[in-house]
Amino acid sequence: MISAKVLPLFLGLFVVATQAQPNKIEYNVIGLLNDTHTMAVMVDNVTYPLSFDQDRTQILHTGKAPVASHGYQYLKINKTSNVTEVEPFLRQPIDKDSVNEFFNRTWNKQSVSEFPIVYEPLKAIHRVKSDLHREGEIPTIHLVANQVDMDKMHNSSSLEDPKVMSKMTYITLNETLSFNEAEISLSGRSSRWMPKLSYNIKLKKKDRLAKFRRLKLRALDTDPSYIREQLAYDVVKSTGLISSEFSFVRVFLNNQELGLFGIIETFKNPWLANSFAKGDKKYKNGYLYQGKFQTAASSAMGHISDLSYHDNITAYADGQYKVKVEADGEEKENYKPLMEFTKFIDTAPTTSGEDSVKAWKKKFDTDSFLRSMALEFLLGYADGYTTMADNYYLYQNLETDTFFYIPSDMDLTFGSTMFKLDDMWSGNYSTYPGMGTRPLMNKMMQVSEFKQTYEGLLLNLTQQIVNPKVMNRRIDQITQLIEQDVAWDSQLPRVGKDIMGEMGSAESAPTSSMEDIMSQLGNTLPPNMDMNVMADFAKRIGANVPFQVAVDGPTGFQSLSGVKEWVQNQTSIP
Ligand SMILES: *[C@@H]1O[C@H](CO)[C@@H](O)[C@H](O)[C@H]1NC(C)=O
Ligand SMILES: *[C@@H]1O[C@H](CO)[C@@H](O)[C@H](O)[C@H]1NC(C)=O
Ligand SMILES: *[C@@H]1O[C@H](CO)[C@@H](O)[C@H](O)[C@H]1NC(C)=O
Ligand SMILES: *[C@@H]1O[C@H](CO)[C@@H](O)[C@H](O)[C@H]1NC(C)=O
Ligand SMILES: *[C@@H]1O[C@H](CO)[C@@H](O)[C@H](O)[C@H]1NC(C)=O
Ligand SMILES: *[C@@H]1O[C@H](CO)[C@@H](O)[C@H](O)[C@H]1NC(C)=O
Ligand SMILES: *[C@@H]1O[C@H](CO)[C@@H](O)[C@H](O)[C@H]1NC(C)=O
Ligand SMILES: *[C@@H]1O[C@H](CO)[C@@H](O)[C@H](O)[C@H]1NC(C)=O
Ligand SMILES: *[C@@H]1O[C@H](CO)[C@@H](O)[C@H](O)[C@H]1NC(C)=O
Ligand SMILES: *[C@@H]1O[C@H](CO)[C@@H](O)[C@H](O)[C@H]1NC(C)=O
Ligand SMILES: *[C@@H]1O[C@H](CO)[C@@H](O)[C@H](O)[C@H]1NC(C)=O
């Protein structure tokens, strides 16, 4: 026992000690508030106010408070009523400044294992190092823009393409970056017919976010599992191909929570330099052509982007292809290199033997294509080259003087489809929708060396990556990573017009929706598309397939298998 004489002295020292060492740390939390509310942190049941820096961003709330002995929670306080919304869990005490935490998320970073590298990147690929796609984290993006203009954009038809300037703030665990004059526009074609919209973001000419200037925020709205694009881009990378990479972000627009999105890179400069020359500013790129299936104009001419040869260069410019990026210093609308390449395909040797293989390799990075085709089948691209002559790029690589195949847009994969699943996962690639109808694949499959390579790829990729034993671990970890955000996202109000949902619920499709769709695509659908599955697809857009059911399957919809169900079925190839 401390004697009465010593006690005051002891207490005195204690007071001095706490004054000299206030033991206060900084708490940081991301959360969107209206000016009706403020943010605070409650440390061991005592509330301390947090504030934001008006000149920086309104979504990051910061303040000093003591180190907790039991724990802490963030809370939102209604300024007029003092009613609080407290996080329903206790955060463990920390003794250093917090990272940028997120309101009502129980974690900041998770450990997620990556897929194995099955093939090293093809020789032509030299991808820049970038922090854009952070494993195990979900950064936040806040767009501040004129709300009236944004409302107009959200209500626009596919014929218009409004653009709105914004200030974009990007926040990771330890960084806050701001970009003025970040241009927002709606992204995609069919994705505009969904209730949740996807966006393009273009930064100012000199601005870069993790080395990229143009990005897409993907709504993931056709995928109730939310993980298809992540997995598909991951497998593309593990197969030694180049495309965008993928990760998740939380997105806010002004005072509204837009939800959980995917972020990908747009295939426009500096993407080519970043992918083929480690970001070299002096890189001289060739043409980048995009296959877009068809437009109303090309449909009228009977042209799709299947890489058939036309003896008439104007036939390439009907809209089925797009010059995504022009060659350095060259004119924009030039289809000559593409025409020459399709002429090569048309006349290329189909006999087996070294000479044939050499002739092909002189013009084309054949591995970039065969690997991509193997993935179309294994991952079930319902909107790729085989099924729809859609969603790919051909890059004229000037350094190697060959074309390079780039797969893109991987939302309709792993059994999310407009085609009959039984044809897609029969285990026999000959039954795959569209197989045997695309000139480039047909020609190459006639060369026995390429056919062997393709079949070898199917086998090796199945053994080494596209099977439940390898994939389910990451599938489970990604599912866990986004679980709380999916719960948040799925109850948020949407800003889009939901043309797809209108079609799915109406007896006959409303004319305004059909007009919008036909103005984009023309009135011919691919001959092998299954109308029953297509109708089922429209119907399920409005139906809430639960997250875990969408991951595991079966879902009860013909147009949607579970992700794991797909992997299981497609890899039980005899
Ligand atoms: C802010 O207020 C608007 C209008 O009342 C509301 O729609 C919105 O959801 C609120 N945002 C937040 C983050 O509370
Ligand atoms: C905080 O308050 C709760 C409920 O009012 C109480 O159960 C808990 O014991 C308090 N904790 C501390 C550390 O005072
Ligand atoms: C804040 O409290 C006031 C007074 O009770 C109430 O009228 C208002 O709706 C509350 N605001 C929000 C956004 O909940
Ligand atoms: C809310 O709290 C503040 C500060 O403690 C106080 O001044 C105010 O009267 C409270 N308002 C209500 C409606 O309780
Ligand atoms: C926190 O998130 C859960 C769902 O994950 C939700 O039920 C709850 O209402 C949220 N609480 C607050 C205070 O936002
Ligand atoms: C959306 O656009 C349609 C016509 O395109 C118009 O009739 C409607 O009023 C608009 N709605 C809003 C909320 O702007
Ligand atoms: C933030 O953390 C990452 C790794 O987690 C690190 O590479 C980066 O340098 C950090 N940035 C700052 C500003 O501390
Ligand atoms: C060439 O193609 C264009 C566009 O498809 C078409 O309008 C034109 O009639 C074609 N010309 C010839 C000579 O076939
Ligand atoms: C695969 O399907 C094609 C076309 O239906 C058929 O001709 C072929 O015999 C099938 N191959 C096997 C191994 O079943
Ligand atoms: C598949 O794997 C085998 C054994 O490792 C290898 O010999 C073969 O070259 C591979 N084939 C392809 C197309 O990668
Ligand atoms: C696919 O999986 C389902 C169960 O989810 C099963 O009923 C069906 O027979 C499987 N099909 C194939 C081709 O493996």
Q: Any overview of this molecule?
A:
The chain has a domain at 5-102: Sandwich (Immunoglobulin-like), CATH 2.60.40. It has 18 helices and 19 strands. It has helices at 6-20, 147-154, 228-238, 271-276, 296-301, 336-347, 354-363, 366-379, 385-388, 421-424, 439-446, 448-464, 468-490, 499-505, 511-521, 531-542, 547-552, 563-571; strands spanning 24-30, 37-43, 46-49, 51-53, 57-66, 72-78, 84-86, 100-102, 140-145, 163-171, 176-186, 199-202, 214-218, 246-253, 256-265, 288-292, 321-325, 390-397, 402-407. The protein has 574 residues and is an alpha+beta fold. One 2-acetamido-2-deoxy-beta-D-glucopyranose binds next to loops.
Provide tags for this entry:
574 residues; alpha+beta; binds 2-acetamido-2-deoxy-beta-D-glucopyranose; single chain; seven-stranded mixed β-barrel; disordered N terminus; Immunoglobulin-like
Number of helices: 18
Bin the helical content.
Answer: 25-40%
User: Order of strands across the biggest sheet?
Assistant: 9-10-11-12-13-15-14
CATH topology of the domain at 5-102: Immunoglobulin-like
CATH architecture level-2 label of the domain at 5-102: Sandwich
Structural class by secondary-structure content: alpha+beta
Shape verdict: globular
- How many DSSP E strands? 19
**Strand percentage, roughly?**
15-25%
Radius of gyration: 27 Å
CATH class of the domain at 5-102: Mainly Beta
Hetero groups in this structure are: 2-acetamido-2-deoxy-beta-D-glucopyranose
How many angstroms does the end-to-end distance come to?
80 Å
Determine the mean pLDDT.
92
